[in-house]
Amino acid sequence: MARSAVNDRQYLEQHRGKWRVSVAVPKRLVSQVGSTRVKRQLNTDSLRVANQLKWPIVREIMASFAQAGGGDDIRALAEELRRQRLNATTDLDVEEVDTAVSVTVDQLLGREVATTSDPVTGEEAPVYAPHAQRQASEFMKIVAGKATPLDRFHDQYMGQLTVKPRTLGDDTRAIALLQRWCRENAIDPYLQSFPTKKAAVRFVDDLQALEPKLSPVTLNKYLRRLSRYWQWLERREEVQTNVWQGLVLAEPKVQHDEKERPFTDEEMIKLLTGPAAPEMRDLVRIAALTGCRLDPIVSLRVRDCQGGVFEFKPQKRETSTRKVPIHSQLVDIIARRTSGKGMDEPIFPEWPPPSSPLKERSYKATMHFTAYRRSLGIGDEREGRRRALANFHSFRRWFITKAEQADQPPHIISAVVGHKREGMTLGLYSGGPAMEQARRCVEAVRLPEPA
Q: Distance between CA 33 and CA 410 in Å, rounded?
C-alpha cells in the first residue's frame, strides 16, 4: 500500500488524545457484531504513526466482515487490496498487501474437509469446501484485476445519466438479465468474461428464450442499454471494446393495420363520458386538448398553470419547458384544481411520485388509465405487441389530427405539441410562434359530443 499523507484520517479517530482505528460495520452485520463500528486502540498521539499502524488492523477487521457477511464484503475488501497494491511504492508495501491477501484467503477457505494426493508427485494437498474454494478463487481474481463484477461500475454509470426514470429502469433490468444469463450458463459474471463479441452473441441468441414474454422491441432496448454501458466502460479503459455494438434481434415488420393510432371520435366520447374517477375525467380532457404526453401533465404544479398558460416540463429532446395555452374548455378544471393551493403543490395530488426513482411520476396514472380504457372495451390489443394500438399516446395523435383537419399550419402544431420543426428557418432561426398563434391552434380543437 502507498504511505498515507500525514493528515490522512481514513479509518481513524481520536479518543482521549490517542488515535484509534474505526471501521463502519456493514448494515446487515450490525446485529451480529453488536455495534455500528469496530474500533481498535493504537496508543499513539501521532497521526503519522497512526497511519503507519492502521492498515494491518483495518485489513483484519474487513477480512472478518468478508468472512461473516458474504459476497459483497469479500468483493469490497478485494477491491480495496487491489487499489492498495496498485498504489504501492516499495517492495515492503507490496509484501504487506500480499500478506493481507494470503491471510484473507486462509480465512475464506476455512478448515480443510479432506486431502488428495498429486498423481505425479504423490504429495498430499488439502481439499476445502467447494463454496469456500469459489469464494477464495473469486477474491484472488478480483485482487489480480481478473474478475470485475458486471455491475461494479453500474451505479456510477447510472449516476451520470440524464435520462427518464423509465430508461434507468431499462438499464437496471438489462444488467440483471445479463447476470441471470451468466448464472444459468455457468459463466463468471465478470467484465472479463466478455473480451470479444463471442459471449455477447451467445447471450443475444438466448435472449428470446430467456424472456419469452418480452417482444424483440423490448429486448433490443435492453441490448442498447448494455451497449451504452460498455461504451462508457470503454472510454474509461475498463473494457477493451464495446462487444454489444451492432447486436440486435430481428424485429417483426409492423403491418399497416398494426400501427398505433389516434382514438376515434366514438372512442373519445366513451372516454369522456365513461364512469371515470374525478381525476381521470380531468386527466383525459387535459390530454385531449393539449396533445401533451402523460408524465408532464401529471407533474404539473400550480405555478405551471398561471396566466392562462400551461408550462410543461421538457420531454424527449426538448431543452426547455414548453408553454401551451390553456384551452377554454379546461379553464374550470384548472381553476378547481389550483384553488387554495400553494404554488409548488401538484394539481394531481391523487398520483404522488412513486417511491422508486426508476419510475416516472405518471407510473400509477398509466395503470389507472389502462384499466379504465380496458373497462370501456377500447384498446385494439394485438398478440405479441407490448402496447395496445390505442393507448394514452392516442390522445396526442387525436389532437394533432384534429388540429390538422382544422387547417392549422403544421409548424404551429409542431410547436404546440413539442415536435421538432423542420428546416433551418423554423428549426434553427425562429424563436417560435407567438402565443396567440398557438392559442388559435389549441382552440381549433373541440371535444366531440354525443349525438
A: 68
- Give the DSSP H or E segment for 19: strand 18-24
* CA-based torsion, 187, 190, 193, 198: positive or negative: positive
Summarize pLDDT for 172-195 with one digit per residue, the tens: 999 999 999 999 999 989 999 999
Q: What is the pLDDT of residue 18?
A: 94
Determine the Cα–Cα distance for residues 121 and 370; give it in Å rounded to an integer. 72
Decide: 300 and 347 in contact? Cβ < 8 Å.
yes
CA nearest to 150, candidates 243, 221, 86: 243
* pLDDT recorded at residue 67: 66
> Is 245 a domain residue?
no
**Helix, strand, or coil (residue 322):** strand
Q: Confidence class of residue 111 from pLDDT cuts 50, 70 and 90?
A: confident
Q: What are phi and psi of 127, to 5 degrees?
A: -120, 130
SS3 category, 125: strand
- DSSP characters over 20-49: EEEEEPPGGGHHHHTSSEEEEEEEES-HHH
End-to-end C-alpha distance for the chain, whole angstroms: 82
pTM of the predicted structure, to 2 decimals: 0.61
Could you tell me the residue range of the domain that residue 102 belongs to? 12-143
- CATH code of residue 418: 1.10.443.10
Q: In what order do the strands lie in the sheet with 12-15?
A: 12-15, 18-24, 37-44
Share of residues in the chain with pLDDT > 70 (%): 90
Q: For residues 211 and 404, give the distance between their C-alpha atoms in angstroms, rounded to a whole number.
A: 41
Number of H helices, E strands in the chain: 18, 7
For residue 69, which amino acid is it?
A: G
Nearest Cα to Cα of residue 338 among 306, 312, 297, 294:
306
Distance in angstroms (rounded) separating the CA atoms of residues 292 and 240: 43
Closest CA to 258 of 382, 378, 398: 382
If asked whether residues 285 and 383 sit together in one domain, one would say yes
Same domain? For 281 and 224 the reply is no
**448 lies in a domain?**
no
Which DSSP helix (H) or strand (E) runs through 310? strand 309-312
Give the count of domains, the chain.
3
Q: Please, are residues 199 and 205 in contact by the beta-carbon 8 Å criterion?
A: no
Average pLDDT, the chain: 86
* Co-location of 159 and 139 in the same domain: no
Lowest pLDDT segment from 125-134, 280-289, 384-393 = 384-393
Q: Which three cell numbers stand for residue 109?
A: 477457505
pLDDT at 1: 39
Amino acid making up residue 154? H
Tell me: do 164 and 290 sit in the same domain.
no
